[in-house]
Amino acid sequence: MAGLPRCELCGARSAPLRCPGCRLTYYCDVSHQKTDWVSIHSQICHLLSPVLRPQPCFHSEKDRKQGKEQLLRKQESLIAVALSRAQGFVWAGQPLEAIPAALQALRSSSRLLGPASLQLLPICLLLAEASTGAGRPRQAAKYLSQAQWIVLQSPDCSAALQSKLHRGLGLFSIAEGNLDQALYHLANDVYLATAEFGLNSVEVSGGYFHMANIFFHQNKMDAANSLYTEVSSLWHAWLLSSLQRHQRALQARAEASPFSEEEEGSEDGTTEAQRERGVRMLSAVLELREQGPLQHPGETAQILHSLAIIHYLGLDLAKAQELGMKAFDLAKQLPQQDSLETIGHLLELINAQFSHTT
Fold it and tell me: What does the pLDDT read at residue 1?
């Protein structure tokens, strides 16, 4: 029995189907093969053979070193693709599709780094999140237990990673209906994120947001509204700073010599993952503010402004302009119109970018 191939998806030993491409992965039925193909296998089939098959014998130390470096790059590439696919499916609300890609990332990382590596922690938490979303609480609990074990094996685990663990445990507790336990973990998430990143960091906002959702469903509206406002304020302040960094980078490029080498990449300090989290959180708060019995026009304008900045930094100019105009129109109706200038400046940047790209 030990030598029989296992199903790539469920681990079952009866796995008669083999991928005709890499000829290294097996499946117990066609549905598992199709699910894995859609999730991740179509992207990495060509990478598996050079990564998993025995390495050739090298005739010199130089060749051996080069072969080892090439193997490492292929392994890292495979993990990066798998993680990106898994995260993308989670963001798109497709947790079932995320699971095979996340499993591939976990297996590959374990082979490369060892089962107790702290770098496995975010992957375990992603698997727990996807499993919870897919209605598989037992699997989610298993990955959370693995994440806790990794932390226990790592006395030097950072507050940032411990914060992520508590958030994962909090979200699982919410799904299980254990709201008191969820609040305990989310409070720890906020405390640890604050210790690592500072009181005013957007990394703290996730814990506040999920705590606010709990209070909202418990009809504790004062606590919920206070935390939602804190989430909106944290993101707005951080995004204004990111926009300023973006402007400085644009100015520096405009003043640079035409003969200097131009560096690629974003210089505003944001990542795709951060922008995606911001859109998800702020859109949820915006919906609550727009549909709630109490009007919060100032905060609503602030959220619209924040979302416009996110889409501008992400180069979705049409969406940025739409949200920016809504923010501007709402801000004009406020007794205090301090925000009109900053929103108007963003609209000028968006229009200038439109002109530059057409």
Answer: 45
